[in-house]
Amino acid sequence: MFQLKNVFIIAHWVGWLLVFSLTALFLSENRSLTGVLLDPNLWTFFLIYIFIFYVNLIWLIPSFFFKRKFMQYFVFVLITFVLIVFVKPFDRLVIERNRYEMRPRHRFEPHLPPPVDFKGNPPGFKPERHEQEREARNFDVVSVFLFGLVWALGIALKMNERWRDSEKRVLQAETDRANAELSFLKAQINPHFLFNTLNNIYTLAVTNSKKTAASIMKLSQIMRYVTDEVSEDFVPLANEIECISNYIDLQKLRLSAKTEVIFEVNTLDTSQKIPPLLLMTYVENAFKHGISNHDKALIEISIKSGKDSLHFICRNKLFSTFRKVERTGIGLSNTRQRLQHLYQDRFNLIINDDSGVYQVELTINN
User: Fold this and answer.
1) 221/307 Cα distance (integer angstroms)
2) What is residue 326's predicted lDDT score, i.e. its pLDDT?
3) pLDDT by residue (tens digit) across 336-356?
4) What single DSSP character describes residue 15?
């Protein structure tokens, strides 16, 4: 922001120096540099347009134009226009330049004819009074054109500045909304996950299972992962795998022999980072909707990671109650939103439910 402001300041300085240099060059015919720089007509011309430009840019546009006070704004435009027409800053430059052009540049020999000015008049020629009055009544088209140009440039710059500020506000609002949505998604995921896990522990405790203590330890590890790391945008893949492994062990405690679980991990770099509970959501969904008390069930989970990629597959049998329950769930849609927020176009998520099998295939490219 600071650098951009400096660029605009430098651009203003360069622009006005260019205008001043071109104006001084216009007056430099047959004159010394000191004479040009001390010419009051040059400074009058230059300061008039600087004053018009910055009064319009800093005060009139923000105070009247942007606040839709168009009548007041038009009054200021009209007053400034009348002043330009009356003062004729460019005509003053032309008259001053012509006055110096009419001066002889060399000492001529007596036998040579005297030099003439650009109108063919001899040195010392003065126009009649009616000609001076006619020149005074001339309309200074160039000054009016420069007035319109400077005024329009001020409006264009202020509109561009306003557009950039609006874009920044939109981007900031989108960022804030994305962060708020991501926090909300995590808040939705965590209670849902913990609720299901605690139900499993409750079942073990009711049946006085000897595996209750070990299950509580695994749950404590899961809760440590959830409470300590879920607030981060990314965590090591190894932590997510450990959480999934503990979760599967807890689920196996309540599964019958009709349900088979295959969990395969093939990772070259477990320090690779992913969003917390990203894969866990699909694993939890498979256990929630992919098992039956009466039919055989198979849940397959595969995690493969390379140096710059992650490939995850979760597959389970599709039972008749899945579609009804899945429509009311929020975990899967939330996970897709998290992926879009964090990876944008660097992920590919394919979900199929063909042939009675529900399969999630996720590929992430880092």
Assistant:
1) 27
2) 44
3) 878 888 888 899 999 998 888
4) H
The three-state secondary structure class of 304 is strand
pLDDT of residue 157: 86
pLDDT at 165: 87
Q: Rounded to whole angstroms, how far apart are CA atoms 314 and 279?
A: 9
Ramachandran assignment for 208, one of left (phi > 0), alpha (psi -120 to 50 degrees), beta (any other): left
Tell me the CA end-to-end span of the chain in Å, nearest whole number. 30
Residue 350 contacts by C-beta under 8 Å, 6 or more apart in sequence?
359, 360, 361, 362
Amino acid occupying residue 16: W
Q: Report helix angle 70-87 to 141-206, nearest 10.
A: 150
Residues in Cβ contact with 198 at an 8 Å cutoff, skipping those fewer than 6 apart: 219
Measured distance CA(46)–CA(331) in Å, rounded: 67
Residue among 84, 125, 30 nearest 39 (CA) = 30
Under CATH, domain 213-365 is a member of which superfamily? Histidine kinase-like ATPase, C-terminal domain (3.30.565.10)
Give me the pLDDT at residue 1, please: 53
Tell me the chain's radius of gyration from C-alpha atoms: 40
Q: Provide the CA 362 distance to its chain's centre, in angstroms.
A: 29
Q: Which residues of the chain have pLDDT under 50?
A: 105-106, 108, 118-120, 125, 128-134, 322-329
SS (H, E, C) 122-182: CCCCCCCHHHHHHHHCCCCHHHHHHHHHHHHHHHHHHHHHHHHHHHHHHHHHHHHHHHHHH
**Domain chopping of the chain, boundaries:** 2-139, 213-365
With 0-12 / 13-18 / 19 or more C-beta atoms within 10 angstroms meaning exposed / middle / buried, residue 251 is buried
pTM: 0.53
Q: How far apart are CA 95 and CA 45, in angstroms?
A: 13
